[in-house]
């Protein structure tokens, strides 16, 4: 399947290759109707500047609950990617996130929103540039308020077209971010060719940096590389005050993690924003 995809860049759902279990088939049926009915929700997790406390953005994270409980994105996103549902799902997340961003701005919070873009979207049949441009227009949000997070692995299948699409997206004025940095296999030399503004160090390196020398070393190197390339460096997955302080002292520009806030439902996030801006003003 991967080989086929690499050659054609087209995603054809091939059940025979997928080892579909009954649970997966049932999930797929439910996911299709959830996407069609707009039942996938979005949670927002803030990123803050660890020095000033200012909110530098919020990541939109897909949330889906079935009758028997929540399904993790790590399970339903890959399913959507393999079944052609990822494009309508991404359109829904983009629209929801941009409409939330417009609401934050109306409430006086100039906070950019970040949406995860599956690698399939870069080289799939639907021009992702048009999808993004239409969503921005529909919600009347300036392009500079949208960041698209893309994993480095996403550029491996079809690097030439992938990079071309990134340039088209950048041309719209949106910000581009390399997600889960350090976990993929992209060559470092290619990084300098990408029109990106942000690098997110994966949480697997961030967690335990206060105890694990190896992870700390990788985090320092990633941070230095990001800054040498002129990128905004974000650390994801800071769970404790100690991790937060260590990442601040290493010079990370933004920190995202449970220590700052868990991903929140829209109303809770708006309340968090209001309370946080008061706290930040008081401590200044
Ligand atoms: P990601 O883009 O790297 O998102 C960060 C993940 O780390 C989120 O998991 C978030 O809840 C989690 N996280 C943040 N801070 C902490 C922390 O301090 N500790 C721990 N243990 N985890 C933390 P989530 O929401 O389960 O999403 C998992 C992945 O699913 C995302 O990783 C992303 O790759 C994918 N995903 C989620 N929503 C979307 C979406 O709308 N579209 C696409 N294409 N992918 C999505
Ligand atoms: Mg992300
Ligand atoms: Mg990430
Ligand atoms: Mg990650």
From TrEMBL:
Residues 24-277 form the EAL domain. This is EAL domain-containing protein. It comes from Paractinoplanes ovalisporus. The lineage of its organism: Bacteria, Bacillati, Actinomycetota, Actinomycetes, Micromonosporales.
């Amino acid at each position: 399947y991967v080989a086929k995809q690499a050659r054609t860049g087209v995603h054809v759902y091939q059940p025979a290759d997928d080892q579909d279990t009954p649970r997966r088939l049932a999930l797929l049926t439910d996911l299709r109707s959830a996407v069609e009915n707009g039942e996938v929700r979005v949670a927002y997790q803030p990123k803050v500047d660890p020095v000033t406390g200012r909110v530098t953005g919020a990541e939109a994270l897909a949330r889906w609950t079935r009758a028997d409980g929540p399904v993790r994105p790590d399970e339903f996103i890959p399913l959507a990617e393999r079944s052609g549902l990822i494009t309508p799902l991404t359109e829904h997340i983009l629209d929801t996130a941009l409409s939330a961003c417009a609401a934050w701005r109306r409430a006086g919070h100039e906070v950019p929103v970040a949406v995860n873009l599956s690698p399939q979207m870069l080289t799939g049949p639907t021009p992702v540039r048009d999808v993004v441009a239409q969503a921005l227009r529909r919600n009347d949000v300036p392009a500079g308020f949208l960041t698209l997070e893309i994993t480095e692995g996403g550029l491996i299948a079809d690097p030439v077209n992938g990079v071309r699409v990134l340039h088209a997206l950048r041309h719209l004025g949106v910000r581009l971010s390399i997600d889960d940095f350090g976990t993929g296999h992209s060559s470092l030399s290619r990084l300098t060719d990408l029109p990106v503004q942000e690098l997110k160090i994966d949480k697997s390196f961030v967690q335990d940096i206060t105890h694990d020398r190896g992870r700390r070393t990788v985090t320092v190197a990633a941070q230095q590389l990001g800054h040498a390339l002129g990128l905004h460096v974000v650390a994801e997955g800071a769970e404790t005050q100690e991790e937060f302080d260590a990442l601040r002292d290493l010079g990370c520009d933004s920190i995202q993690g449970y220590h700052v806030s868990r991903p929140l439902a829209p109303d809770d996030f708006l309340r968090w924003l209001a309370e946080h801006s008061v706290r930040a003003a008081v401590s200044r």
